[in-house]
């Protein structure tokens, strides 16, 4: 049951075995909720890109949306039964943030957002097919490696944020040089492999007979990973484009 996704901890599905079959979580139900969540994010991002980006309050939304989204994510994690209400709100807030940040990248590198979106969904579909065909198996060693790598990346980002308050930046890895590009490729790979852990975790939720509202929670976990993957691909492409 190991996963590096903070939304899907090892005890997420424990204690769920007393629900009627028609009240239990299913993989198909989670897929439907994920599609709805993607739709909400897309609509919110388009509105943000098309309207808020040109407003004088764009900077406020750029800062406030991810902070509020983080708070809603915490509420979702600690109160999973709220998922049917909190996940759509989370998707709206993250969509606002993604639309704005994508707009800034698009101004610097025209066409980069389309490339990042195509790459993100390409990775999602490829890994889903590989997982369903059992080309990639979520073994314990695989899970341990992905969790360890994800934890290491999180530590690097946390240290970078703390050092940033003192005007210090970690050299090389955040630049557009060879080391920075290799680091971004590594992060994209780890973010993508987290999708495999999410797929496996959702299937285990169905096996454990989790309640129906956990379909929204499973969709939430996938959205957390997909948003991270998109942002990392966007950063990688920007590093590559800056070298042209």
Automatic annotation (TrEMBL):
The keyword Ribosomal protein does not apply. The chain crosses the membrane at residues 35-54, 60-78, 85-105, 111-132, 144-174, 180-201, 213-231. Keywords: Membrane, Transmembrane, Transmembrane helix. InterPro entries: BaxI_1-like (IPR010539). It comes from the Archaea. This is Putative YccA/Bax inhibitor family protein.
């Amino acid at each position: 049951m190991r996963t590096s996704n903070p939304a899907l901890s090892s005890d997420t599905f424990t204690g769920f075995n007393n629900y009627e079959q028609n009240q239990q979580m299913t993989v198909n139900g989670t897929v439907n909720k994920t599609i709805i969540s993607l739709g909400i994010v897309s609509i919110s991002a388009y509105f943000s890109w098309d309207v808020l980006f040109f407003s004088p309050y764009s900077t406020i939304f750029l800062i406030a949306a991810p902070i509020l989204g983080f708070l809603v994510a915490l509420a979702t994690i600690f109160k999973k039964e709220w998922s049917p209400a909190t996940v759509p709100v989370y998707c709206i807030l993250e969509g606002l943030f993604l639309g704005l940040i994508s707009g800034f990248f698009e101004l610097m590198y025209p066409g980069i957002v389309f490339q990042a979106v195509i790459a993100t969904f390409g990775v999602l579909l490829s890994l889903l097919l590989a997982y369903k065909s059992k080309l990639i198996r979520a073994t314990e060693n695989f899970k341990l490696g992905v969790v360890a790598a994800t934890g290491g990346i999180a530590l690097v980002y946390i240290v970078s944020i703390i050092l940033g308050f003192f005007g210090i930046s970690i050299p090389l890895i955040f630049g557009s040089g060879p080391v920075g590009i290799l680091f971004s490729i590594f992060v994209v790979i780890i973010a993508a492999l987290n999708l495999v852990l999410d797929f496996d975790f959702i299937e285990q939720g169905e096996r454990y007979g989790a309640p129906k509202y956990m379909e929204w929670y499973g969709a939430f976990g996938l959205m957390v990973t997909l948003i991270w993957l998109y942002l990392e691909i966007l950063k990688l492409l920007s590093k590559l484009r800056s070298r042209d």
